Structures are given as structure tokens and as C-alpha cells.
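Can't paste images in this forum, so I'm doing it all in text. The chain is below; anyone willing to post the predicted C-alpha cells underneath?
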Amino acid sequence: MATVDIEPASLAVTPGESEVLTLTVRNDGDVVEAYHVTAVDDAVAHVVITPDTLLVQPGETVTAEATLTLERTGRSPLGVLIVRFQVVPAGRPDEFL
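Text version of the structure:
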């Protein structure tokens, strides 16, 4: 089992600029676990996650950065963009957090 925190909970992004969200994954289990982190839904085209695979020891936390960039060209959404992430244990791809 793992827990995921995202900071900040919300932010404003100006088209042409980037903002960073920090994803913190804590392994609450008893074994080392690798987690794949991806953006989903409408945010996929606007988010780059580094690293996108996290190896987390039992009882420890590891962070990844999700950089959100909106283009100036008008292809970026106007208004609110809900950014969702999927964190999947590598050994159990049918489960996600």
C-alpha cells in the first residue's frame, strides 16, 4: 500500500510558462515497490513527469516533479484544467492509487 501527496493543491499557469507540482509517494508496505507515475485525461499533453518511475523502500518517501506547461499558441485550454495523476505499482499494473 502507498499514499500520494501533491503540492501545491492548486496553481495558476500563464500560457508560455511552466509551473511545477511535487508528487510525494510513500511506501506503507513491507517490500520495495516501483511505481509508474503518469498524467491522465486532458492534462496528458501538458505535463512531463520526472522521474516517471519511482523505486520506494518500505516506510520511505520519494518525490517526482510534474511540470505543467501551457502553450501560447491557443491550443492550451482556457479556464480550469484539472490535472489528474495515476500512480501504478509496477508489479501490479491493474491496481492504481
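The chain has a mean pLDDT of 88. The longest strand covers residues 18-27.
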